[in-house]
Amino acid sequence: MQLARYIAGRLLLLLPVLFGTSVLIFLLLRLIPGDPAQVILGLRATPERLVIVRSELGLDLPIHQQYAQWLGKLLAGDLGKDFRSNEAVSELLRVRLPVTIELTLFALALAIVVAVPLGIRAAIRPGGLADRAAMLLGLLGISIPDFWLGIMLILLFSLGLRMFPSSGYVRLESDLVGNLRSFFLPALTLAVGLAAVLVRMTRAALLEVLERDFVKFLRAKGLRERLIIYQHVLRNASIPIVTVIGLQFGYLLGGAVIVEEVFSLPGVGRLIVSATLERNYPVVQAGMLVVALLFILVNLATDVLYGLLNPKIRGDGA
Amino acid sequence: MIARLRASYAASPSASVGASIIIALVILTAAAPLYSPYKPETMDFMAPLSGPSRAHLLGTDNFGRDILTRVLYGYQISLAVALGSVGFGMAAGVTLGLLAGYFGGALDNIIMRPMDVLMAFPAIVLVVALTGFVGREIAVMMLAVAVVYVPIFARVMRGAALECVNELYVEGARARGASHLRLMLRHILPNAIPPVLIQASILMGIAILLESALSFIGLGTQPPDPSLGLMLSEGRSFMQQAPWMVLVPGLAISLAVLGFNLLGNGLQALLNPARMAR
Question: Which residue among A52, A157, B3, B76 is least packed, with the fewest CB closer than 10 Å?
Fold first, then answer.
């Protein structure tokens, strides 16, 4: 019951952020120099046609009415139409969103599988081999640009060893193995940066808990070290780790923009970049909105997980 | 002099190594026109795609341009964007964070809630949209990255200011009748600035990554200017015949970012020894 109230409270707090986000995206593309009508018509532009297209887009209205109109359509699920192909933007996103989501989830899984156990080992024996490996990953992972790492992986594993395809995308429904193979290198590329942050955070969080009195007590009681670590310490250290994973998800979405470009994956990130290059306003607007929304929802999910992991936070009633 | 250098290395090897990398890069880059035998756009039609040699230490690209020279000039763009974006972002963010932390209450909300909204966008998406629509000049890149940095600096500054605001020395100065401005600038700012500087070092590195990423996808520096990200994207088509075209710029970016990360980590260790000792 309390948890339900906590979640409701978080959802309520979401509203102003969502409102602000929509205003920002709207303004970003309205206040920027350049006339969308001119862009749509290109060489076919005549003064009469410009007037017609502007009124079709609602650009002749005062700005607050434009926003209200845009928001109204948005809430009805109408994200506008692609300037070029005249396709509904919602349809474009429906096709491309799963690609980005699969890429980020795959990367997230890879990062967790490597970084959390490594961070734990590093914390158990500071200065040991695992600790040094963790430090190295933590430093190099955030210094190497992901698009370069992607290119190097292609050079080595695709062109050199021919183990994975260098680009392209196999649909999940048509061929599971092919799909996983086409996603492996991009996901690995994306995972390294996250793993770097995660390994440092895991190590730091564990070290902090290991110093607390209850650990000394459990040790004095004669509990096996493994049991102490996996049953007690990890549970207490999980909150900062979960937070970092939640926060980093946004960076994964950002990184996906670049990684999709390197591996020619047809995801939302690539859609935003190509739409930006051709000044395709509705597509950019909708793409940014979806990315921001995903980010906000993941943060909400992180908060809820918080509540599940820590009864104290939940008890505050938020 | 040497003794002092040795002492500072002992205090934080990480910060010293990081600072050395950065200083070396800045000097090599700034002095490049003085010692480099080539210009970044000089083409050697006799030697396109040639590997490392005495004439071209790190090889040439498809136009026969010297890669080492282009890397050195590319660093100028990277460092300019990093410095500009962190400068603008810090100036605005520190001001906002200081006001929010010092006055609190309604002003805090007015300043910080829009910052939350800005933080709801992955940096690269915001920067792509801004540069894509406003223009692809260096100044625009700087400002676009600065927009991403303002909320980060504001948050760090606000947190640090909150910790100082109730300290005795601030109370004392207030009791002596110091004005708000004086309290903020003379008493809180100097004591709250260290975490901001750590952040600045790390964000310089991220700015270099963002600039090269933007140029890589075609929304940053435009050819024929030598940007590290652009060199990488041009090198992709030739990576099997001339792997140095992608290897060199990538390593160059990593080295600079590594320098700033080492410096940031080291500063953190120096300013917060208790936390790092564990």
Answer: B3
